[in-house]
Design goal:
The chain is an alpha+beta fold. The chain is about 30% helix and about 25% strand. The radius of gyration is 23 Å and the shape is elongated.
Length: about 220
């Protein structure tokens, strides 16, 4: 099991995964319609945070120092990724500063391997503690991957539908003279599907699976 302590040195200013204009476009709304901007802006922040919670990670670019006291098989996975090689400020192992040729970084995943001997055939276990100072993550919302934007919009759309349904909840039928309009009661569906994830949540989680952080 990984054992890491993360200290945020420079926190991100924005954690939203998409802009207001992007949300309107994906929701089929006109950019000139500002009647829901305040609510939509809040929902973007809420569901961006929810996506980060599901994925067990911070997507926004931040400068951090991580202290690792246990790693797996000579590898550690930095908590904020992607990470560019030029954004690693320092790496030390067992209180000894390492040179860049003594470790290897896989930028896309944030995997950091201790090689010790640069000519060796494989990574060797990190001498503990391993301390890494670096800047990693996405410059949000611009750099957010498209699947993250789509997952966030799916959750927002589903919430908007729930809000619309709540306005007519309990109304079964409206009559006027000889005309009758029957309504679907969303409460009945909620009762039948209690404890079951909604289709929107399932679709969003399917998109998010490749971005989740799993400890090893």
């Amino acid at each position: 099991m990984a054992d890491v302590t993360v200290k945020v040195l420079t926190p991100a200013a924005n954690f939203d995964l998409l802009t207001l204009d992007e949300a309107k476009l994906l929701l089929g709304m006109s950019k000139t319609d500002t009647s829901q901007d305040e609510a939509l802006t809040m929902m973007i922040s809420i569901y961006s945070a929810y996506v980060a919670e599901i994925c067990n990670r911070t997507f926004a670019k931040e400068k951090v120092t991580e202290t690792w006291r246990e790693t797996y098989d000579g590898r550690l996975f930095l908590t904020h990724w992607p990470v560019a090689e030029g954004d690693i400020e320092s790496v030390s192992s067992a209180c000894v500063d390492l040179f860049p040729d003594e470790y290897e970084l896989e930028e896309a995943s944030g995997k950091l391997s201790y090689v010790g001997n640069p000519c060796g055939p494989e990574a060797t276990p990190w001498p503990w503690p391993a301390i890494v100072t670096y800047t990693g993550g996405f410059d949000l919302p611009i750099e957010a991957p498209l699947p993250l934007k789509q997952a966030t919009v799916i959750l927002i759309r589903e919430e908007k539908m729930r809000m619309q349904q709540a306005q007519v909840a309990g109304i079964r039928q409206v009559s006027h003279k000889d005309s009758r309009v029957a309504f679907f009661d969303p409460n009945m569906l909620l009762i039948k599907t209690a404890g079951v994830k909604s289709p929107g949540t399932q679709a969003a989680e399917s998109l998010l699976r490749q971005y989740m952080r799993f400890w090893v």
